[in-house]
Amino acid sequence: MTDTEPPTGRSAVVTGGNKGIGLAIVEHLLAAGHRVASLSRGGDAPAGALGIACDVTDAAQIEAAFKEAEAAHGPVEILVANSGITKDTLILRMNDAEFDQVIDVNLKGAFRVAKRASRSMIRKRWGRIIFTGSVVGLYGSPGQVNYAASKAALIGMARSLTREIGGRGVTANVVAPGFIETDMTAVLPDDVVAGYKAAIPAGRLGLTHEVAATVAFLVGENAGYISGAVIPVDGGLGMGH
Fold first, then answer.
1. CB of 79 within 8 A of CB of 130?
2. Taking a C-beta distance cutoff of 8 angstroms, is the pair 18, 39 a contact?
3. Is residue 240 within 8 Å of 230, Cβ to Cβ?
4. Residue 159 domain-assigned?
5. Rounded percentage of the chain residues whose pLDDT exceeds 70
6. Does the pLDDT value for residue 227 go beyond 50?
7. Residue 156 lies in a domain
């Protein structure tokens, strides 16, 4: 079987899979027949997924979570590093802790899970690593020096992994969402949302399932020749820059 997913799907791990974009990704992977473990601090997950409590800033918790996922689903073949936080404030007010916390979750957390997942991928000579980036990583945003830095760095990570382990059948890509309808954007004032929409060529906010569908394609059998790429899902806001 060459152009379709294996009958039993692949073993997948999604971090931050309990809400928003991560939840939509878990649901899309489940629908595609994959065996999905959803890692989050609370360990909650949608029906059909294995929920595992895990803090991505703790290497020991990551190791334990991966062992649990592998015991249930087999060696990890798909990783979606989606966990992320914000600590927004202007640079003159941003302290070291606010910068470090964002880097520790968004960037170092992605590094930790990618390092752990690549172990089985290299052995199997097949793997898909997806980092959830952001249009902010290349477009920039006032008050988000820490967040933008963390998301921009994921691109260098994906491209370095592509050159390092791409010859073992492992791809590494970044999906870069723009402004997406989530709980976070739902509480924004109407005038702020209107300003976002005015700047977006598509004239609307994105939907979580649009990001998830992009991820679902990139982890599939037909995306094996795409690696080191940044795929924007932003309605044309950043246009890949």
1. yes
2. no
3. yes
4. yes
5. 96
6. yes
7. yes
Helix (H) or strand (E) holding 127: strand 127-132
Mean pLDDT for the stretch of residues 167-188: 91
Say if 235 falls within a structural domain: no
Domain assignment of residue 197, yes or no: yes
What is the model's pLDDT at position 2? 46
Order of strands, sheet of 230-233, starting from the edge strand that comes earlier in the sequence: 50-53, 35-40, 11-15, 78-81, 127-132, 170-177, 230-233
Residue type at position 103: I
Number of domains into which the chain is organized:
1
Using an 8 Å Cβ cutoff, are 161 and 129 in contact? yes
Residue with tokens 């052995």: 123
CATH number at residue 197: 3.40.50.720
Residue 42 pLDDT greater than 60, yes or no: yes
Residues annotated as catalytic are 147
Mapped onto helix, strand or coil, the DSSP state of residue 177 is strand
- Digit-coded pLDDT (tens) for 197-214: 999 999 999 999 999 999
* pTM of structure: 0.94
Tell me how far apart the alpha carbons of residues 5 and 23 are, in angstroms, rounded to a whole number.
21
Distance CA 131, CA 61 (A): 20
Which residue range is the domain that position 106 belongs to?
Answer: 11-230
3-state secondary structure of 22: helix
CA atoms within 13 A on the CB side of 121: 31
**Inter-residue contact 226 to 170 (CB < 8 Å):** no
